[in-house]
């Protein structure tokens, strides 16, 4: 059985929406707005920034930053955007590094949580090349238990592809899941789970670790 990722995702999105009304911290507000869109929400914002980064500098100036937030339909006023930008523009250069921005935006996780996530990743990454693909899943998963396979709607590969798409950003599904995508996804899920113990039990059950 595929892990119950969708259910956690829904719970997390609902909780993020609820917490939005309680927090005044601008970075936390942006984080929660992303998470309210589900676990791939932060990754989706990253993709918007990447498209705007015409010169491949992997940096954004304030104008690009605001445009990116607007394109991604983030409810944020200019003043709040300014505050966030200043937090990340540590050296006052007028630009921010968006990889660093996205890592900071990701909900923080304890070492124990990161370790169990990596354990699951390694189990799925049969070929050990740092990317999970359909080929990898063939060795780990039995698609034959999936209801859509059983009723003839999907082939084995379609079951695997749908599974991989869970971890991908909604606009950028390439059938490959990198360590970063897997981490980002579970950082989202992790945000809705209070204790390390429960998170670890959930991961162990889901992935039979």
TrEMBL record:
It holds the Pfam family EF-hand_7. InterPro entries: Ca-bind, EF-hand-dom_pair, EF_Hand_1_Ca_BS, EF_hand_dom. Residues 40-75, 76-111, 112-147 form the EF-hand domain. SUPFAM superfamilies: EF-hand. Signal peptide: none annotated. Keywords: Calcium, Metal-binding, Repeat. Transmembrane segments: none annotated. GO terms for molecular function: calcium ion binding. PANTHER family: CALCYPHOSIN (PTHR34524), CALCYPHOSINE LIKE (PTHR34524:SF6). This is CAPSL protein. It comes from Pterocles burchelli. The gene is Capsl.
